[in-house]
Design a protein that fits this description.
Elements (H helix, E strand, L loop, with lengths): L31 E6 L5 E4 L2 E4 L6 H9 L3 E4 L4 H15 L7 E5 L5 H9 L4 E7 L3 E2 L3 H12 L23 H4 L11 E6 L13 E6 L6 H15 L15 E6 L5 H10 L6 E4 L1 E4 L14 E3 L4 H12 L3 E5 L37 E6 L28 E4 L3 E4 L19 E5 L2 H21 L7 H10 L22 H8 L4 E12 L10 E6 L2 E6 L3 H12 L5 E6 L2 E7 L2
Parallel strand pairs: 8-10, 8-11, 9-10, 11-14, 14-15, 15-16
Antiparallel strand pairs: 1-5, 1-6, 2-3, 4-5, 7-12, 12-13, 17-18, 19-20, 19-22, 20-21, 22-23
Helix pairs in contact: 6-9, 7-8, 9-11
Keywords: Hydrolase
EC number: 3.4.-.-
Enzyme class: hydrolase
Length: about 575
């Protein structure tokens, strides 16, 4: 591990993650006091106090909790159930014992004082305070907003501004994936873990399942952030606004408010099946600046560095869920020696998860790369180069667009810069940024791949297989002045290349039985196609030449078409017209 921390002062790509390079300030994020019990104590927390399944004396613990008007609650749910799950999975996956983690309720402004006192009690192994995490209305209000929106001008089609949907290397080739079975995310569910969302947004209605855990934070900046994330992944496919990378995937939300980040991750994983995806759209202040919150987010790091968050992510990935997490906007090398030093408050078994030599959480960690120069008339440095605010290091698996992401929601804490107005459900932005915008781009790519794997009768990727596919394929990271590609954020996903890596490619052939010349494609982002029904399925020939079009038309018009087609999956790779 190295000890380095240097940044260039100016030039394209060197600004911070906020508007015009400034920082962000989010309201409502609270510290969390986490307690780790001694395994031999076998604590069992109930509403009326704490007991010990091993017969240990817990009177001092109960007296302390009573005197301070605190409650100890299991972080991940019932201890007996958790212990059984952990014992069953631990041999293969090395999951920390989830039954040992507790959250302290009460004493909101005294977390540090309470930490040292509760950690000294006989049945407690240790306790630590986590800084508040930040992002990398009622049904009647939504209905009234819809009625107001109906009186306003119709939202234009903004998909032409979503260059990340287009071909590699500039985009991830989502539009190509839409032409393949499952490539729009069919059969895949994604849960976004963060703070709040505008669930009544006009462009998120088709596949949005709502909030599965926690209470959304009542703050427009948080809502704009979550709304932007959901739009990148699953924005509705229609003729207005934007289109998500996987518009047929089901999206849902999990708020950490009221339960904490680790419990929200765990609860999201409990609601999913193998192959589904949990996205962690949060980071928090790390040890670089002594865990102090900062508007510029310098020193902020991925959540997995904290023991309970690591345990929750490890549980999810062991269950077959793909976890994707923002690496953070801290401008940090996660290879730095500062992350090797175990805080005194952490349990003895903790080891730095950013070090590839240590056991991994299994999550896909995402950095922020520059979009193609000229996107929306701006230049953030060479395409796919590391943006200066993005964390980097050997632990990172892939990058997404960290600037200029067009999506649903407003601009930070105000109305949309692309479309604003009085109705929040119709806000759109051109400037979603950070590892927060990069991560849903990667999630969208993985959901498209999972959909194609399922449609092809293949087993979906595990989180580890997803990491391998992202590292083995994709459009490579580029150098920028002062930010060489050796400061790893990884490749930008390339869906065509990833499909070749994941799906066995076989070429079949057969006679075309009928055809459909798609002169006006739908969705309009797709290329013109000549569709031929061969061997029981429709096969697509993109951008057919006028000569091929005319030959196919003439063959079918003659009543006895003789058209031999070679295909790979649903893509035409060869065609001969003889009559």
């Amino acid at each position: 591990m190295t000890d380095q921390h240097a940044e260039p002062a100016r030039g394209p790509g060197t600004a911070g993650p906020g508007p015009d390079g400034t920082g962000f300030a989010y309201q409502g994020a609270e510290e969390e006091l986490i307690v780790v019990a001694r395994p031999e104590a076998r604590l069992r927390a109930q509403p009326d106090g704490v007991s010990s399944a091993a017969g240990a004396d817990v009177s001092a613990l109960n007296m302390f909790l009573g005197d301070e008007q605190l409650a100890l609650e299991p972080l991940f749910g019932n201890e007996e159930r958790l212990q059984g799950i952990t014992e069953a999975a631990q041999a293969g996956a090395d999951i920390p014992d989830l039954a040992l983690f507790y959250r302290v309720r009460g004493g909101a402004d005294r977390a540090q004082e309470l930490r040292s006192r509760i950690a000294a009690l006989p049945e407690i192994d240790t306790a630590y305070v986590k800084p508040g995490a930040v992002p990398a209305g009622s049904a009647a209000e939504f209905e009234e907003a819809r009625r107001m929106k109906e009186k306003a001008a119709a939202t234009p089609d903004f998909t032409g501004r979503q260059r990340y949907l287009g071909p590699a290397p500039e985009g991830i080739d989502a539009q190509w994936a839409w032409q393949r079975l499952g490539g729009s995310g069919e059969g895949v569910t994604v849960i976004d873990v963060e703070g709040a969302w505008q669930l009544g947004h006009e462009d998120l209605s088709a596949k949005l399942a709502g909030v599965v855990v926690g209470t959304p934070i009542s703050d427009v900046a948080w809502r704009n952030h979550g709304t932007a994330v959901l739009g990148v992944i699953g924005g509705d496919r229609n003729e207005r606004g934007i289109t998500g990378i996987v518009p047929e995937a089901v999206t849902a939300a999990a708020s950490f408010q009221g339960v904490g980040t680790a419990a929200a991750i765990h609860a999201a994983a409990e609601r999913l099946n193998p192959g589904d995806i949990v996205l962690v759209e949060l980071h928090r202040p790390g040890p670089r600046f002594d865990f102090e919150p900062r508007d510029d987010q310098r020193g902020y790091i991925a959540l997995e560095w904290w023991p309970d968050d690591f345990a929750a992510i490890k549980y999810a990935t062991a269950k077959g869920i793909v976890v994707v997490a923002a690496a953070g906007n801290g401008a940090e090398s996660l290879d730095d020696a500062v992350y090797e030093r175990r805080p005194d408050e952490f349990p003895a078994w903790w080891h730095n998860p950013f070090n590839p030599s240590n056991r991994s959480s299994g999550a896909v960690l995402v950095g922020a790369g520059a979009p193609p120069p000229g996107t929306h008339g701006r230049d953030h440095g060479p395409d796919r180069s590391r943006l200066a605010f993005s964390n980097y290091g050997a632990r990172l698996d892939a990058q997404g667009w960290g600037r200029e992401v067009t999506t649903t929601g407003g601009s930070w804490n105000g109305p949309g810069d692309l479309q604003g107005g009085a109705e929040e459900i119709a806000w759109y932005t051109d400037t979603f940024s950070g590892t927060s915008s990069a991560s849903p781009v990667v999630v969208g790519a993985l959901a498209a791949l999972q959909g194609m794997l399922k449609a092809g009768g293949q087993r979906p990727m595990t989180s580890q297989r997803a990491r391998e596919a992202l590292r083995a394929t994709g459009s490579p990271q580029q150098d920028a002045p002062g930010r060489p590609a050796s400061q790893r954020i990884g490749n930008r996903p390339d869906l065509r290349a990833a499909v070749t890596n994941l799906l066995p490619s076989t070429v079949g052939s057969g006679q075309a039985e009928r055809y459909w010349d798609e002169l006006i494609p739908y969705p309009p982002e797709l290329p013109p196609r000549l569709r031929l029904f061969v061997a029981g399925s429709w096969r697509n020939l993109n951008h057919p030449s006028p000569e091929i079009r005319q030959a196919v038309h003439a063959a079918f018009a003659g009543g006895r078409p003789d058209i031999r087609v070679w295909f790979s999956d649903d893509e035409v790779v060869g065609l001969v017209v003889t009559g």
